[in-house]
């Protein structure tokens, strides 16, 4: 009897936000469920505002990354000839969990139509990649009661800059304590993890230089 694989709680899924070179991201459309489409508006927003939301990646056996969610952002960043992308790395994401994440992202996207969802279901079914949880997610999204209707943004809460700075300072203090511990074990880390950590630290150093350059005290 075939046993349906169990999904792990979110607390057991290890993820970390990093700045990743676009050269390390494979052009792999395995998990792409919606077409890239016209990128002009997205590219304009990225050029004007920067990347506001990370793309979701998972590492491959070749020490590179596969896109789980965010194919349009990756394409737009490449169109803009950017070198890096803000990414959330999911260190141990199974094929099934990756597909469910991609499905959820597509379903909750305003640009994903009912017809495209039906096409994605048929394509996944034909390739043998549609698991029971994935089918259930799609069926709920297609149901008349809207069990999995696209999420809508609620009222945006105004953020106080001083409060945000105080919170960020506190969190950075905690991160610096962790970095002090990592400094002693740095040479024993996996080379890929060393590079990822150094890339993030370089970004922080560049941000410090930028802030100091704009300090008008």
Descriptive tags:
217 residues, disordered N terminus, four-stranded mixed beta sheet, 48% helix, alpha+beta, 4 strands, 2 domains, Conserved hypothetical protein from pyrococcus furiosus pfu- 392566-001, ParB domain, 7 helices, globular
Describe the structure.
The chain has a 4-stranded mixed β-sheet, with helices on both faces. It is of the alpha+beta class. Residues 1-12 and 146-157 have low confidence and may be disordered. The chain has 2 domains: 10-142, Alpha-Beta Complex (Conserved hypothetical protein from pyrococcus furiosus pfu- 392566-001, ParB domain); 161-213, no CATH class. 48% of the residues lie in helices and 11% in strands.
List the topology elements.
Layout lengths: L14 E7 L18 H10 L5 E5 L5 E5 L1 H9 L4 E7 L4 H13 L6 H13 L5 H11 L18 H25 L5 H23 L4
Parallel strand pairs: 2-4
Antiparallel strand pairs: 1-4, 2-3
Helix pairs in contact: 1-2, 3-5
By DSSP (H or I, 4+ residues per run), the number of helices equals 7
Number of domains: 2
CATH class category name of the largest domain: Alpha Beta
Question: What's the alpha carbon Rg, rounded to whole Å?
Answer: 20 Å
Q: SS-based structural class?
A: alpha+beta
Question: Uncertain spans, ≥5 residues at pLDDT below 50?
Answer: 1-12, 146-157
What is the beta-strand fraction? 5-15%
Helical content band? 40-55%
Task: Return the string of H and E elements.
Answer: EHEEHEHHHHH
Largest sheet: 4 strands, mixed
CATH architecture of the largest domain: Alpha-Beta Complex
CATH superfamily name of the largest domain?
Conserved hypothetical protein from pyrococcus furiosus pfu- 392566-001, ParB domain
The outline comes out as: globular
Count of individual beta strands: 4
Q: The CATH topology of the largest domain, please?
A: Conserved hypothetical protein from pyrococcus furiosus pfu- 392566-001, ParB domain
The strand line-up of the biggest sheet is 1-4-2-3
């Amino acid at each position: 009897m075939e046993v349906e694989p169990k999904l792990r709680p979110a607390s057991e899924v290890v993820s970390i936000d990093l700045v990743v070179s676009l050269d390390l991201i494979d052009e792999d459309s395995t998990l792409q469920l919606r077409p890239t489409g016209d990128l002009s508006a997205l590219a304009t927003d990225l050029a004007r505002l920067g990347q506001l939301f990370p793309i979701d990646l998972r590492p491959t056996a070749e020490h590179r990354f596969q896109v789980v969610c965010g194919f349009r952002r990756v394409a737009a960043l490449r169109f803009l000839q950017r070198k890096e992308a803000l990414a959330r790395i999911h260190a141990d994401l199974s094929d099934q969990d990756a597909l469910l994440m991609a499905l959820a992202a597509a379903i909750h996207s305003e640009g994903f139509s009912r017809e495209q969802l039906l096409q994605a279901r048929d394509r996944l079914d034909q390739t043998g990649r549609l698991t029971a949880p994935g089918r259930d997610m799609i069926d709920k999204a297609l149901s008349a009661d809207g069990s999995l209707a696209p999420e809508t943004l609620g009222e945006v809460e105004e953020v106080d800059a001083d409060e945000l700075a105080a919170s960020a300072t506190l969190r950075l203090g905690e991160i610096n304590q962790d970095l002090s511990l990592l400094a002693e074990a740095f040479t024993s880390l996996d080379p890929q993890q060393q590079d990822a950590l150094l890339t993030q630290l370089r970004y922080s150093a560049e941000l410090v230089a930028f802030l100091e350059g704009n300090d008008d005290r």
